[in-house]
C-alpha cells in the first residue's frame, strides 16, 4: 500500500530478522500524533522526521515500499513478533483515520472522532493478528471491515437505547418517507399505522419507546440558531452568573456617587457638616446638635434645607 508523506525513522534492532532498510522508512501520512504516541515501541527508537526525508528515502520507489511490506508480512506470519506487528500497525494506521471519518459523518456532533480512531486502532490490531496472506486476499479491504466493525461495536456499547428500538425507529422513518412521497403531505397516525401494519394503540406505544432515541446534548439545543461560522454558544456561555456584578449597574452607581459628591461639595459649610455627620458618621440629630452647639430642632431644619438643595442640584445635573 504505497503512501506519500513524511517518513517515520525506525532504526532496525540488531536482532531484526528482516535486515531490509525499506521497512525503516514506513510512511506516516495522516497518522494522528496521539495514536502514534500510544503505540507500543518494543525497544524501537521511533522519531518522526519533519521537514526533509531521511537519507536515501527519495531514491526508494513505491514498488520498494510494497516489496518491503510483503517481506514484513511474510516474516510476521512466521515469527508473530509483536515488534513486527507494531510496524504493520504504523503502516496501515491511515486506514483507521479514513474509516473513522466515514463512520463519524452521520453521527451527532458530541461524538469525538478521536474516540472512533481509538476504537479503530483495536480493530486494526485484531485484523493484523487474524489476517492470512496465503489466501490471496487484499489486506486493506479486510482491515477496513474489521476497523468499521470495531468502531460500531464500541458505539453500540455506549448506546442506552436497545437495538430493537433503533430498528423500529428506522422502520417508522422509512414509512414516513414513503407516505410523504405518495400523499404529498404529512401522513396521519392512522395512515402511518396502516403502512406499518399495526394498530393505532400499538403505534402510540411505539412513539413512547421512540422518545428515548430523541435525546440530544443540551449544548446542541442552546447553540441551535446561534451558530456563527460553525461555532455556537456553549452551555457555560448561556447560563447566567447570579454572583457576577452587572457592569451597567456598576457604572450607574459610580456616576451617581460622583454627582452626589459634586452636589455636596457645593453646599454651605454647616449644611455639608450636617449631611456628613448624619449620613456618613451615622450620628443622630441630637448628637449633631451637641457637635454644632445648636438645638435638635435647628439641626432638623439644617438637614431639611441641605436635602432640598442637594435634590435641586442633582436635578440640574440630570437635566444638563
Describe the structure using short key phrases.
single chain, 320 residues, Rna Polymerase Sigma Factor, Chain: A, Butyryl-CoA Dehydrogenase, subunit A, domain 3, Arc Repressor Mutant, subunit A, 3 domains, 3-stranded antiparallel beta sheet, 14 helices, 3 strands
Please describe what this structure looks like.
With 320 residues, the chain is mainly α. It has three domains: 152 residues, Rna Polymerase Sigma Factor, Chain: A, CATH 1.10.1740; 76 residues, PhyR, sigma-like (SL) domain (Butyryl-CoA Dehydrogenase, subunit A, domain 3), CATH 1.20.140.160; 73 residues, Arc Repressor Mutant, subunit A. It contains 14 helices and three strands. Helix 6 packs across helix 7, helix 11 crosses helix 14 and helix 12 packs across helix 14. The longest helix is centred in the last third of the chain and has 24 residues. The N terminus is likely disordered.
Question: What's a concise summary of this model?
Answer:
This protein is mainly alpha-helical. The chain has helices at residues 33-38, 62-79, 82-103, 113-130, 139-158, 163-183, 189-196, 200-210, 218-223, 235-238, 247-265, 269-280, 285-292, 296-319; strands at residues 7-9, 25-27, 47-48.
Write the layout of secondary structure elements.
Blueprint: E1 7-9, E2 25-27, H1 33-38, E3 47-48, H2 62-79, H3 82-103, H4 113-130, H5 139-158, H6 163-183, H7 189-196, H8 200-210, H9 218-223, H10 235-238, H11 247-265, H12 269-280, H13 285-292, H14 296-319
Antiparallel strand pairs: 1-2, 1-3
Helix pairs in contact: 2-3, 3-4, 3-5, 4-5, 6-7, 11-14, 12-14, 13-14
